Amino acid sequence: MQKRKEQRLTDLRKILEEQGRVRTRDLAQMLDVTPETLRSDLDLLESQGLIEREHGAARLRVLDKENRQEKMQVTIRALQEVKDGDIVFIDAGSTILTALNHLSSRRDLTIVVNSLPAAQSCLDMGFHCLFIGGQMRRSGGHTYGYFAEQMVDNITIDIAILGTTGIEGVDGFSVYRAEEVGIRRHIIRQTRRLVIVMGRHKLNQPGYYRYASFREADLLVTNHLTPEQKKRFSGVRQIVEV
User: Fold this and answer.
1) How far apart are CA 215 and CA 77, in angstroms?
2) Minimal CA–CA distance to 82: which of 31, 114, 127?
3) What is the DSSP letter of 200?
4) CA gap 149, 184 in Å, rounded
5) Is 111 left (phi over 0), alpha (psi -120 to 50) or beta?
6) pTM for the predicted model, two decimal places
7) Rounded mean pLDDT of 143-160?
8) Is the pLDDT assigned to residue 224 strictly greater than 70?
9) Which 3 state secondary structure label does DSSP give 33?
10) CA dist., res. 88 & res. 133, Å (int)
11) How far apart are CA 201 and CA 199, in angstroms?
12) In the predicted model, is pLDDT for residue 49 greater than 90?
């Protein structure tokens, strides 16, 4: 019972991280829980200072202005690595979707995603989008599993831009849910260049399920690090600090 609750809370935070403000009735549907159960989960996260609630909706607490700016700077710098004609896998974080307009000057891009919200954002911006099909997780609208992995295995990706939930305790880059690891491993095998984006605030956040070691990253784009912080990323081929 406790393990299911922990997973549900993790899923809830992930949805809010990716989609911003979400109506509580939509959250209950995504998580397939009763309104009472959702209310209990939201009460707990609110008591921990992790979320804000407003008029039948919830959102993660807004990062302070400095953190928001740092996260956006990192994302924009990572997108500068994309070249005309590239096939690009884009992670589904809210910041990177907001920053996609910085690719508007590129020509002949194909953006590959495994998230329905990300696919819709790409289409709204006029990008050519390739959506990876497969088993779909109700919360967040992500695809994963055998069929998604088989589709990835038939794509040669020029550059994959992925985020991380944290690095503490995993000696690498991680995701919230175990089922996300498989498709990311296939993406890494199919990409010519792996770029990781990580805001400095993720340095001391716990890792959950590791999908890549430091040495597998071709480029880490992050905020300015102290020499001691930089030592933690031993093995990363290149680090760019902004």
Assistant:
1) 21
2) 127
3) G
4) 9
5) beta
6) 0.79
7) 97
8) yes
9) coil
10) 16
11) 5
12) no
- The Cα 124–Cα 110 span in angstroms is 14
Q: What distance in Å separates the CA atoms of residue 171 and residue 177, rounded to the nearest whole number?
A: 17
Angle at Cα 220 formed by Cα 158 and Cα 152, nearest 5°?
35
Q: Tell me the two tokens of residue 161.
A: 């831009």
- Retrieve residue 128's tokens: 């050519």
DSSP letter at 20 equals S
CA distances from 35 to 12, 13, 31, 56 (A): 13, 17, 10, 11
Q: Which of 213, 205, 238, 191 is nearest to 10 (CA)?
A: 205
pLDDT band at 140 (very low <50, low <70, confident <90, very high): low
Work out the burial of residue 125: count CB atoms within 10 Å of its CB; fewer than 13 is exposed, 13-18 middle, 19 or more buried: middle
Q: Which strands make up the sheet holding 51-54, listed edge to edge?
A: 22-23, 57-60, 51-54
Q: Residue 198 to residues 121, 167, 202: CA-CA distances in angstroms?
A: 21, 10, 7
Long-range contacts of 37-44 (CB under 8 A, 24+ apart): 41/5, 41/8, 41/9, 41/12, 42/12, 44/9
With residue 5 as reference, give the H or E element that holds it.
Answer: helix 2-19
Check: CB of residue 60 under 8 Å from CB of residue 50.
yes
Question: And the tokens for 125?
Answer: 């911006």
First to last CA, the chain: 43
Q: The tokens of 143 are what? A: 């695809």
Lookup: tokens for 222: 């992050």
